[in-house]
Each structure stands twice: as C-alpha cells, then as structure tokens.
Amino acid sequence: MKVVFNRTELSNAVTTVQRAVSSKSSTPALEGILIKTKNSAAELCGYDLEIGITTSIPATVVEPGEIVLSARLFAEIVKKMPDEIVTIETDDKLLAYLHSGLTDYQIVGISSYEFPELPSFEALESFELDSGTLRSMIRDTFYAISDNPSKPALMGSLFDAADGYLNIVSIDGFRMSVRREKIESTNKFEFVLPKKTLGELLKINSDDESPVKIVLGKKHAAFTIDGYCVVSRLIEGKYVPYKDTIPNGCDTTLTIETKQMISSMERMSLLTSDKMQQPVHFLIADEGIKMFCTTAVGKANDFIETRFEGSELEIGFNNRYMLDAVKNVDADELLFEFNGPNRPLKILPVKGDSFLMLVVPMRI
User: Fold this and answer.
1) In whole angstroms, what separates CA 219 from the centre of its chain?
2) Distance between CA atoms of 291 and 300, rounded to whole angstroms?
3) Are 322 and 358 contacting, i.e. CB atoms less than 8 angstroms apart?
4) Where are the beta strands (DSSP E) in 172-242?
5) Is 25 left (phi over 0), alpha (psi -120 to 50) or beta?
6) In whole angstroms, what separates CA 277 from the centre of its chain?
7) In which element (H, E) is residue 57 found?
8) CA–CA separation, 286 vs 312, rounded Å?
C-alpha cells in the first residue's frame, strides 16, 4: 500500500476515530486503527467491540492496500509531522513507512485480517435529527445516566419515540432527566444507547443544523454525522417505566430564574463535598426561598426572592444533584413543582414541554 494524505485532514480523522479504539485489549488489533484504501480515498476505522467509528477522507492512492496501525502512536506521529503532505507506505512484512518533509518513521503494523468487522444489521427504523438538536438532547440528559452495574439498563439513555416525538431519558435512582423533540417519524420504537457512545456523539456532534441520520437495528444503532459513522451496540434489557415515576399534581409551585438558582446552589456548595452529604435546606415561604446548609466546616445562608403558589414547604436536596439539573438546561426561567417534603421535585419549562427533570429530596 502507498497512499498520500493531507496532514490536517488525516490528523483530524485519526483523532476522532481513535476515540473508539480500546486502550487495553488482549487483541492487539483492537488497539489500532484500520486504514483501508478505496478508489481516491482512504477509510479509517476504530472499533472496541462496543462502539465503532469510521470515516473516509480524500487521498492519493498510489498502490491500494490496508493495514492496522497502533492508534496512540499513529495519532502522535501524524500530529507532529512537519509538512502538510504525509505519505504512508507498507511492505509485505507489515512494516509501515511514514514520510513528511524531512521526517521519516518506520513502525510495525498489524494485518487487517486480525481487525474485527463492524457489525452489519438490518434497519428496523431510521430517522433524521438536526445535529445541534441531538447534541442538546444528549447534553441535557447525560448527567443523570447511572454508573451502577447492578442495573445495566440504566447505564445508558433511553430513546423513546412515539406519535412524532422523541424522548431521551436518563435515570440514576436519585434524579431523572427527559428531553423531548419533534421528529419526522411517527412510528413507535425505543432503544437504550450506552453512556460511552453518548459521550462520543457529544464530541462529534456540532451545534449546527446539519442532519444526523439514525438507523436502528435489533441490537445495534448507527449514527451518520458530518462524514463520520458511529456504530454502537445497544443495551439489552427492559428500561424502567419512567412515566410511572413522574408525580401527578403539586402542592407548591414557583418560577425562578435559572442563573439565580445556579448562583445560590454554587454558594451553598462551598461548604459541602462528596464526603459531607448534608442537605441544602429549602424553606419556601414569605415571598421567596431561604436556603441554608450546615456542615462540619460551617454554615451558609442565602435567599432568593420569588413568588410561589400553594403551601409553604421545607425540603432538602443534595447540592450536586440540584446543580446538575439546573445547569444542564437551556432556559432562562424554570418552573418548580413540589408535592411535599418526601416526593421528587419536578422541574419544567415555564412554557412548552421540551424537558422534565426530577430530583429526589434528602431527608431533613
């Protein structure tokens, strides 16, 4: 194989594809990137048996072929090459020669036959979503994904589609986040995408309106984004019936500025930590929210002036859970609905139904 690349295009592609490469594996090929020539282009692929990322970039193919190169070493070499033209040539002993300007490298490659094929699957459903919309939906729900391996179905986000709308749902047992957007498909379907895949989609997705094509199979899903294809296995098993956990009705409601709540919770957080799980008290009365926290370090008090409707209430929250909820939403104002001191707080938009968050209170 002998192929000539633009260094910037190659470096960008390698950096992105490398995210799907296994950092440590008993199969050496899984720690590498597969390079395969195709007409006047080269296809790059990284795959760790859970997620695969492929892309195709323009190249001058002098002699076709394919090889697997160590992802970490390959990425570092390409990044530091001195010239904008990079030539990669291989021989029948699986040695790869990388040349740019006056710089040359010789590294050991791996046969492409040792690289596992990405899964192919029958498309059961497909739909499109703006890149910026998908990124926003994943970002707003990512924080609530569970890390508890005893509940594997919750270690990802549920994509729940019905009646022309898509809900992305994350639950970890202490909070829930739901983002809702309209899609063209009116079919009913659902699947659970692993946290790792969602994190990679966040990095690849941009905030523009370019389309993302999503294809769903029985055990896998594929996302085509801006020249990249991300193929991921799905988490098997039944997701919790999340709609059953949403409280009906409320005793106390208030509307609050998002920035105000973030600032107050950050001030309260100065006295708390993961080792000091003391609740931040909310006393809702007298035209506002009095917030106070007492830990081994000291005491803190704050007040947010806002009107409320319904009963006065005292309730406590984990500061980090509350901060995660109010930080990961794109809204200037939030509607808080309380249903007593021991029921989850429901956070909603003032208008519409684009998101819903639940935060379970702490006992005080």
Assistant:
1) 19
2) 8
3) no
4) 175-182, 189-194, 211-216, 220-225, 228-233
5) beta
6) 27
7) strand 51-58
8) 9
DSSP labels for 101-155? TTEEEEEE-B-GGGSPPPP----SEEEEEEHHHHHHHHHHHHTT----TTSGGGS
pLDDT digits (tens, 9 = 90+) for 161-203: 999 999 999 999 999 999 999 999 999 999 999 999 999 999 9
Residue the block writes with tokens 């000291």: 298
CA-based nearest residue to 273, from 323, 314, 315: 323
Q: Do residues 196 and 293 both lie within one domain?
A: no
What is this structure's pTM?
0.92
**Do 131 and 110 sit in the same domain of this protein?**
no
Is the same domain home to 139 and 76? no
**Chain centroid to CA 36: how far?**
29
- Are residues 238 and 132 located together in one domain of the fold? yes
The secondary structure of residue 248, as a DSSP letter, is: P
Domains identified in the chain, total number: 3
Residue 190 domain-assigned (yes or no): yes
> What pLDDT, on a 0 to 100 scale, did the predictor assign at position 249?
87
Given 58, 90, 114, the domain boundary residue is 114
CATH of the domain at 179: 3.10.150.10
Task: Sort residue 331 into left (φ over 0), alpha (ψ -120 to 50) or beta.
Answer: beta
pLDDT at 323: 94
Domain containing 181 equals 126-209+233-244
Q: Tell me, yes or no, whether 317 lies in a domain.
A: yes
On whether residue 216 sits in a domain, the answer given is: no
